[in-house]
Structures are given as structure tokens and as C-alpha cells.
């Protein structure tokens, strides 16, 4: 797949910023990802991310690390961080920015080490792709946890994007899929990705999936727009 994301990050890092990444979704939405935002410092992070930074402890795996903002912040606090991303360009940018342990691999390929904290921020749970794949995804995350480890993830309930009727119900397409399953294409400087699935998951559905996979699920913080930060951990018996 064309590394559109990695090329955009590298351009920005090298001072060649002329345009943002465009995204096109199955919700018939066109949007842009501003490249400066992908290089934000702690002060510019949303409260959900700042809270996750404060809660991170021990050894940390930053999953879908992008340009390495979270890894760099935690490194500066003296923490041991592994930064993981499937984008070779993103990992190259991480190296250039001083991330100590960046790894270019997909999450499901990665099996080398166990951690005290797994970070999945900027809707990192979206990497699961679809609701049907969520159990496999959660089981793999569990395999990367130390006994008292934690998973910190944020997501959004995108129910607000659907039309509401007079009774307060929502008109959701009856295609049999969970409404939080979205397909995206990213485009940058004439290059575009193949369509890829991305999962937005409401908190109740996440709770149910955790219960089915021997995980406790705690709502840590609600964001301003249907978003939330959750902490997952292995259930104790």
C-alpha cells in the first residue's frame, strides 16, 4: 500500500509543508488532517490524551505512534517506550525526532515483548477495523500485557453523524454492519491509499467486548464531542 501517511509526515518534518492529508469516508464525508496537528506537543493535545499521558506507567508500547508525539513526551519523563507503526515513513520520522525505540510493524505482527501500558490514542482502537475483528484484536493486546498491565485507548461514538427522528431515535443504514464501521481513503499530493476499514466504537459496545475477553473496562474521561478515554485491564480472579 502507498505510504501516503509516512510521506506526508516526512515532508512536514523536512520543512516541505504545502498541503494537508485529505480523507474520504464511507459516510460521504471529505475531511482534512492538518499536518501540524500530527506534530503537536503535550500542551496542544486534547485532554483525553493528556490524561492518558499522566496515567501511563512502567514500560509503554505506543501503538500507531505516528510522528512520535506521545513517545517523545513519555521518553522525556524518563519512561521506557517502544513506538510501533505500520508506516515506514512514520517510523523514519520518529527516528529523526529522537524516538529511542521505533519499530516498523503492524500490531498483529508484533509479539516481541510485554508491557505495563499499551497506548492506543487518536482512536487507536480503530486499528481493529471492524466489530467482527475486535475479539481477535483485544486478545492480541492482552497477549502483550504484563500481569498488572493496562490498555489506555480513546474512541468516539459516531451515532451523532446519523439523522435523528422526532422521538430521538437515529436513522442508521440497515446494511447489517455496526454503524461505527467506516471505510477511509487518504490522499496526499496526488497519491492515495487503498480503502481501509476503521472502527469507531461506542463505550457500551466496548464494555461488552471486554467482558467477553476477560478484560475489565473503566470509563476514565468523557471528551467534548462523543469521545472518551477508557482503561482496560485483565480481570483478577
TrEMBL record:
GO terms for biological process: methylation. It comes from the Bacteria. Pfam families: Methyltransf_25. InterPro entries: Methyltransf_25, SAM-dependent_MTases_sf. Keywords: Methyltransferase, S-adenosyl-L-methionine, Transferase. Residues 60-149 form the Methyltransferase domain. One of its GO terms (molecular function) is methyltransferase activity. This is Methyltransferase domain-containing protein. The lineage of its organism: Bacteria, Pseudomonadati, Bacteroidota, Flavobacteriia, Flavobacteriales.
Amino acid at each position: 500500500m502507498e505510504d501516503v501517511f509516512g510521506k506526508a509526515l516526512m515532508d512536514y518534518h523536512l520543512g516541505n509543508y504545502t498541503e494537508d492529508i485529505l480523507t474520504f469516508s464511507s459516510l460521504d464525508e471529505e475531511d482534512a488532517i492538518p499536518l501540524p496537528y500530527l506534530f503537536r506537543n503535550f500542551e496542544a493535545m486534547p485532554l483525553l490524551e493528556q490524561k492518558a499521558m499522566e496515567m501511563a506507567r512502567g514500560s509503554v508500547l505506543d501503538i500507531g505512534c505516528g510522528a512520535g508525539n506521545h513517545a517523545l513526551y513519555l521518553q522525556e519523563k524518563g519512561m521506557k517506550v517502544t513506538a510501533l507503526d505500520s508506516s515506514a515513513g512514520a517510523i523514519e520520522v520518529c527516528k529523526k525526532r529522537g524516538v529511542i525505540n521505533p519499530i516498523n510493524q503492524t500490531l498483529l505482527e508484533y509479539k516481541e515483548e510485554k508491557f505495563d501500558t499499551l497506548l492506543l490514542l487518536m482512536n487507536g482502537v480503530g486499528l481493529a477495523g471492524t466489530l467482527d475483528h475486535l475479539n481477535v484484536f483485544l486478545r492480541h493486546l492482552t497477549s502483550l500485557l504484563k500481569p498488572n498491565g493496562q490498555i489506555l485507548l480513546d474512541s468516539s461514538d459516531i451515532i451523532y453523524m446519523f439523522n435523528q427522528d422526532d422521538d430521538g431515535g437515529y436513522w442508521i443504514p440497515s446494511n447489517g454492519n455496526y454503524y461505527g464501521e467506516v471505510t477511509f481513503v487518504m490522499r496526499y499530493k496526488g497519491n492515495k491509499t487503498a480503502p481501509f476499514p476503521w472502527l469507531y466504537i461506542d463505550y457500551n459496545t466496548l464494555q461488552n467486548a471486554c467482558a467477553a475477553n476477560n478484560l475489565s473496562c473503566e470509563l476514565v474521561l468523557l471528551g467534548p464531542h462523543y469521545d472518551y478515554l477508557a482503561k482496560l485491564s485483565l480481570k483478577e480472579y
